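note to self — DONT lose this again. spent like an hour looking for the file last time. sequence + predicted structure for the chain T wanted, 134 res
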Amino acid sequence: MPLPFALPLPATGRLLAYAAVAGALAVVGWQWHARGQRIAALQTAAGQLSAQHAQCSAQRDALDQAVADLRAAGAADRAARAGAEAAAAQVSAQAERRVRAALTAHVPPECPAAMDWLGEQGRAMARQWQQEES
């Protein structure tokens, strides 16, 4: 009984045909195996890239948080500086009023030239103090 896939060739011809088919199947199998190895290598590389991407994202998030913290600290420092400048301006204005009151109390009203001179001296001292503080 002949096999259903038997070729109508002489025995050596059939043997060569089966060997050619087996060789072709071996080549296809080897290519399939190589393809599987390439796919595995690509999957490994994709996993490594994914891990690197996650690490970069975490670092970016940490840097974004640090920048936000620095901006918040800068805003707080600017607010504190503005408050300190306002308090200093208030103290300066208060001191100027006290000096004027003291000068007015000690200088008779009939000496306006002396009042002007004392006012200029006070302003010069205030400028000198501001320059020393800066």
